[in-house]
Amino acid sequence: MQIVVIGGGICGSLILRKLSALRNVSAVLVEAKSDLGQGVTKANSAIVHGGYDDPHGTVRAALCVKGNDLFADLCEELNVPFKRTGSLVVARDNPDEIKKLEELLENGKKNGARGLRIIGKDELKKIEPNLSEDYKHALHCSSAGITEPWMIAIAAANIGRMNGARVITGDPVTGCNISDGHVEDIILESGTRITADCVINATGVHYNEVASIFGVVTPPVKLRKGQYILLDKLAGGMIKSIIFPTPSEEGKGKLVLPTVDRGVLLGPTSERLDSYTPDDVATSDKGLRDVIDAADSLVPGISRYNWIIKSFAGLRPDTDERDFFIKADDRVKNFITVGAIRSPGLTAAPAIAELVVDELIPQILEFSAEPKERIVTRLPKTEKINELPFKEIARMIDDDPLHGRIVCQCNEVSEREIINAIREGAKTIDGVKFRTRAGFGRCQGSFCGWRIAQILSRELGIELSEVRLNEKDAWILNGKVRP
Amino acid sequence: MKNTKTDVLVVGGGAGGMAAAVSAAKEGAHVILLEREDAVGGVLNQCIHNGFGLQFYQQELTGPEFSYKLEYELRDKDVHVVCGSYVRYIDFSSNSVYVISPSGAQIITAGAIVIATGARERPFGALLIPGDRPAGIFPAGLAQRYVNLENHLPGNRALILGSGDIGLIMARRLTLEGMEVAAVVERMPYPGGLTRNVVQCLEDFGIPLLLSNTVTRVRGNGRLQSVEVSEVDEQFNPVSGKERSFEVDTLILSAGLIPQVEDYVRDLDTDPVNKGLSVSNTCETNVRGVFAAGNNVAVFDLVDYVAAEGWIAGRHAAFNALGKAHQSQRIPVVRKGMVGVLVPNMVDPNEHLRIYLRLKAPMDKGKVIIRELEIEKSFVYGVPSEMIQLVVNKDKLDRIRDLNKLTVEVLS
Ligand SMILES: Cc1cc2nc3c(=O)[nH]c(=O)nc-3n(C[C@H](O)[C@H](O)[C@H](O)COP(=O)(O)OP(=O)(O)OC[C@H]3O[C@@H](n4cnc5c(N)ncnc54)[C@H](O)[C@@H]3O)c2cc1C
Ligand SMILES: Cc1cc2nc3c(=O)[nH]c(=O)nc-3n(C[C@H](O)[C@H](O)[C@H](O)COP(=O)(O)OP(=O)(O)OC[C@H]3O[C@@H](n4cnc5c(N)ncnc54)[C@H](O)[C@@H]3O)c2cc1C
Hints:
Chain A is an alpha+beta fold and 483 residues long. Helix content of chain A is 31%, strand content 22%. In chain A, strand 16 (255-258) and strand 17 (264-267) form a beta hairpin. In chain A, the strands form six sheets. A six-stranded mixed sheet of chain A has the order 9-2-1-13-21-20, with helices on both faces. Chain B is built from six helices and 27 strands. The interface between A and B is large, with 60 and 53 residues. One flavin-adenine dinucleotide is lined by residues 6-12, 30-33, 38-41, 44-47, 49, 172-173, 202-206, 210, 226, 268, 314-316, 341-347 of chain A.
């Protein structure tokens, strides 16, 4: 039986990983972009939420708490960083905000969220000494943490591949053949046809569009943009936890939080887009200013000019129902949509994968899953020079001098790490960047960009001018100055 | 793992570091110079235009020629140069330097250290320019590297943001190599680079310089498609109705250099205006035996100044390592009036004093005043891009020994 997963974000890749463990399934992942995890999964807050703020009774509340429970093991297996930093929803000394904390606590308990507790100003001050004096109370959630979302997608697809699944990138699904209420095959932009006994639509903000290719109607997506500013590691010392203001109608608010590599992330905004523009991840002057103002009111002085290294935006696939839409279609019998995966989609993703593979697929296909006898469950530890003690690095260089060639000096990334990333599937500057963090630091590739391009050209056997930033038309160089 | 000892260790092999290494060796010190790239030279390697060396070598050289002269001296003085070395960490309490290179990881313990790590370019991300995130946006130095050293052109039609020297030089370079440069955009009401570069790189080629303008948006999915430019008011806010769009596939940023000091700021003091390491007139930082010179102290306009400062740093590092340093005194140097960037930040009255300063804004005429020394030096038409240099002989410094500060002031 062949199951095709469309969309290589965190949801699709984790679904693929589970499918690849089954003996009686041949699994295929099709991703439109040149690499995995470059949709919604690339631009978000990267929080593994505690699960206290999603309204009790919603699908997302249940899957968030379950996903949080699964996260530590998942990241261990995928060799992806995950830090339980804890989160704080901070409140001023006014009854409305204090009441909001109590409501969140109550809701969280109902959801089964772990590690929740309301704390007062002394403890708050101890945890976050740089927090604004305005905040006197907080809901602390010790089970919340941070991760590197795109690496989960990349690593999960890698495991899938090692277990025999096929992963196709850079080739969107554009058509299909359906007969008798069943999808028979799907057609990719390149013309490739793939037979499918079952199709999973996990296409992030594109789920309506893709569902309609199959004649399936899904709740209309309402895009909501979130803009961010990333700060240098130097800002990392200012905070320890994920810091939320008290939430409003618009959502969880603009926060200040650490990133796994010791930087700080500010944002996001929450802006409804009037039309369906799934490629619009442009930032705006007002958005970025709002992010800075909000951050400074939580942690005064954090958004220093010289600490700002980058801004970006992501799109949330929201709906009027404000909940995930994970369903097998009634009319097209072998088609499942994993849609409207808004926040906390990242957190919920491992639970979504279980729901789809362990419950929905067996239901509609009337088959019982048979596990493969031997599968890869763990990715080998990849050595990051940056995280190793000096003695260990010395030993590694003795084995392989390329460990000692530091290409990205802001994040201390060696040529060996870059070559390994390319061998594991990176084909572009961004592919290398998201896997290794080379070019992610304070110089943003001013120093190492050309070296990474050279390594890509050498390892992939292409001309320097054929190296791309990410997608096909994102060319970097325009041929030679002279022959 | 290897443990090595040396008298003087120099981090960074640009003009500042090379000059420091040569002068330290000349004083009889054993010197190791670490450079992270595969060759020494730093930014000189890619500055293939001329305009270097008029003061330090009394002749006009290209960047590579200037570098070559220093490299020759390095060899001549038996400086131990190790390229491809990345300095991971410096333990300033024991002057131990943790180095990673393809030939191994080692700890080098030095009698004295000179830090000459240069500056980096302010990246696009730090500018918070709204819009898409397409390919085709380059810091000028990276574009310069691609064109001059990697033999590749960045695009077809470019707009340049920032009229610093690198931006101006690149406008000319790209034009000469067959790209079209639509304009150079500068948010200040005056150019950021040297006057000679405005004339030779823009005016001679008919490239428009749009002063009091900035980039307000970039567009393009995949590759850059257009850039929106707007006039700005005195607070740099866009003036509505004064926008225009340029169809370009390349945006070159010359938005300033930032001294590379982040790895050391836990131990070494920085100057808030220079954004670089604070040094005295012997180029010593707040930590004894640790010296700094070049663009990581302040962004210098001329390589000649960088090399001269490197030379002083190396000499004093050698004295220090060889036990020949005298007990030094440090009197803080403070700014007044129109003084922006100012080097040094402390003065030891036992040594000559070289002052480098940049004005905060252009001035038709003015004077530099150091009251404590009864110095007054007038100038006509000063601009921030051109540093003003002043040298004070140490004989004159005797009188400030008992003072608690030295004030450098610029008045109109
Ligand atoms: C601003 C913001 C902040 C967020 N913060 C958090 C948070 O802190 N914690 C949390 O838990 N969640 C958070 N989320 C939610 C979380 O990021 C998403 O729910 C999750 O990443 C969705 O993953 P996905 O796999 O469904 O979608 P995606 O990552 O978008 O993956 C879908 C993939 O499908 C591909 N695709 C589309 N069309 C086609 C086609 N025709 N053929 C083939 N492939 C196609 C796309 O290219 C894409 O790669 C946030 C979201 C946003 C926008
Ligand atoms: C485009 C351009 C045009 C210019 N035009 C002129 C001109 O016409 N005339 C003129 O006089 N001046 C000019 N200058 C200025 C002059 O070239 C520079 O000020 C000078 O070369 C800077 O020297 P430096 O040693 O301070 O820095 P750099 O040359 O930047 O050297 C620093 C070195 O340190 C290395 N390094 C950094 N960190 C580490 C580390 N952790 N470990 C090991 N090594 C490290 C770097 O790789 C680099 O080689 C120009 C500069 C530019 C960029």
